[in-house]
Design a protein that fits this description.
Number of helices: 2
Order of helices and strands: EEEEEEEEHH
Largest sheet: 6 strands, mixed
Number of domains: 2
């Protein structure tokens, strides 16, 4: 994911770019996940007035394939994250990335943006019901036949509390 800034020598001029790369799925921290194709980055950069700082603004576009965190079915999700980063010649700090020479390598910034913005839980649909905690049936596909009340369930007290709250709010 390289931008060649040699093309633009003038400061303050927006220059569009597009690039893509197949990234390692290990960065997703999900053993069941993989990228579906390359990660695409499209946007623009501006060489700032000091002639060495470069501001990059772009969209990071990709799809992943993984398992739903609630029910375990295969999910394919598309993502589009915004990237706005400052690249400073030769010096990397907590607030900017470094570049050397006439090219900027976006891979580290893109990778860190994906890791920071990817949701911690990926589900097949917003109203996914998950799996029955007793028999393991996928509740999106069929209703389980387990008893509603399970005395060994540590959340049984919460169920009683929920029913109590509902009955009080109806009054």
């Amino acid at each position: 994911m390289i931008i060649n800034i040699l093309k633009t020598k003038r400061t303050g001029v927006k220059t569009n770019f597009e690039c893509q790369k197949n990234l390692n799925a290990d960065m997703l921290f999900r053993p069941d996940s993989k990228f579906k194709g390359p990660v695409k980055v499209a946007g623009n950069y501006i060489i700032e007035d000091n002639n060495s700082d470069v501001t990059v603004r772009a969209d990071i576009i990709f799809e992943i394939s993984c398992l739903c965190d609630r029910c375990g079915v295969k999910v394919e999700k598309a993502f589009n994250f915004k990237l706005k980063e400052l690249f400073v010649f030769g010096v990397e700090t907590d607030v900017n990335y470094a570049y050397n020479g006439e090219v900027i390598d976006l891979e580290k910034a893109v990778t860190e943006s994906i890791m920071a913005n990817l949701p911690t839980q990926i589900v097949c649909k917003d109203k996914c019901k998950g799996l029955c905690s007793v028999c393991g049936v996928n509740l999106n596909e069929k209703k389980c036949k387990c008893k509603e009340k399970d005395d060994n369930n540590p959340f049984a007290a919460l169920s009683a509390l929920k029913k109590n709250i509902k009955s009080q709010t109806k009054k």
